[in-house]
Amino acid sequence: MPGKKQIKALLLGDVYGNPGCRALFMGLPQLIKTYKTDIVVVNGENAADNGFGLAYSQMRRFFDSGVDVITSGNHIWQQEDLMSSLDKEPNLLRPANYPPSVAGHGYTIVNGIGVINLQGRYSMIPLDCPFRAANGIIEKIKSKTNAILVDFHAESNQEKEALGFWLDGKVSAVVGTHTHVQTADAKILPGKTAYITDLGMCGPIDSVIGSQPSTSIRKQLLQMPFKPVVKEGKAAIRGVCITINADNGNAEKIEVINQEFGF
Asked: Which of 32, 79, 159, 236 is the Cys-Cys partner for 260 at CB 3.0 to 4.6 Å?
């Protein structure tokens, strides 16, 4: 970004259901103003009314509300009206390590900042190696920018931490999504890559990863596949703001965001 010494990147975790959408639309304008952001990246794969997928109308409202890039994960395929947008919208991402013939984009460059979306393999469907996929994409992006953000949508903390160190010094940030619980390990790694194991969820506060606690308790007690029900009520926006050196792409600061809303 010519003339800028620093880049401010706002990265927010999985938006869950209507409560998460309301919190995002209510809180995002002030966050953009407070942090003077150059890019806003939000994981939208749980934003649908039932918590699974992203509807086309929600995608449009995300972009209209100031989101620059929507990342996703294993649930991005669950709203049919979004499918045609995966190829058409360059800033709507699906994990880059899906097979090459799968629709959509795994990375993009916005405002001179690269964003890569990857998915883990532990306790998830078997995909191409996210470590190798990351390396190949970074080589392509580096010719255009040193500022690169990675959303790693994964279940395993071990896999997330390993990718963080694998990419340390190669990218500006590696942030985890998918588990919906914000972790307390936001830091700058030795090679100047910002890292957090999970950004947390933009969604219901008094919930079990977004759903009604009673349903989740019954599932644990009876070991039956009860369908999750989105918990209505108070919600929070969770994520991080990362300050990046505009010249070399090094992370200089990572700030945790945890803002609650009552409605």
From this structure: 236
